[in-house]
Amino acid sequence: MISITPSDEKTAFIPGESIRGTLGWSCPGALSRLELRLFWRTSGKGTVDTKIVDSIRWEGMKAGGDHKYAMSLPMEPYSFSGKLISLIWALEAVAEGLDFRETALLDIVISPDGGEIILWEAGGGEGR
After folding, report:
1. SS (H, E, C) 14-54
2. Which of 25, 30, 68, 76 is deepest in the core (most CB within 10 A)?
3. Domain assignment present for 119
4. Count of domains observed in the chain
């Protein structure tokens, strides 16, 4: 099992802010690799795009433990939801050992006001 716990349970950020927290794990054996990735992905109609923006990698870790992390968030792109496509930011943790692979995912929001930008509303009008 692996977990990503942001400081103060905060999951909404403004561009350029830092995200900090603790990565915890309890696996069936020693880890050959532990990695934390900051990435965005698209969701909706059409081709799904994904881009890893930053990562932190540790090697030779024990079967269980925790580790503090800190990453600076980029200035763009912003988190948004539209009629056809959405852009979602996330942290993904990957723990790999000889006979196992564990992952965890934490969705976050990056925008100027810390809230997801809505590009459309149910009434047909434009959002923010």
Report:
1. CCCCEEEEEEEEECCCCEEEEEEEEEEEEEECCCCCEEEEE
2. 25
3. no
4. 1
Q: Beta-carbon neighbour count of residue 38 at 10 Å?
A: 22
What are the pLDDT digits (tens) for 54-65?
999 999 889 999
Position 56 in a domain: yes
Token pair of 22, please? 């603790």
What are the tokens at 49?
A: 């795009």
Which amino acid, residue 82? Answer: G
CB atoms within 10 A of CB 50: 10
Tokens describing residue 61: 């870790």
User: Which range marks the domain in which residue 6 is found?
Assistant: 2-110
Other beta carbons within 10 Å of 48 = 10
Instruction: Using the structure block, give the residue that is written with the tokens 């603790």.
Output: 22
Instruction: Judge whether 97 lies within some domain.
Output: yes
pLDDT, residue 124, reads 52
What's the CATH number where 65 sits? Answer: 2.60.40.640
The enclosing H or E element of 58 equals: strand 50-61
Which backbone phi and psi does 9 adopt, to 5 degrees?
60, 20
Q: Which two tokens stand for residue 83?
A: 């009629």
CA 116 to chain centre: 15
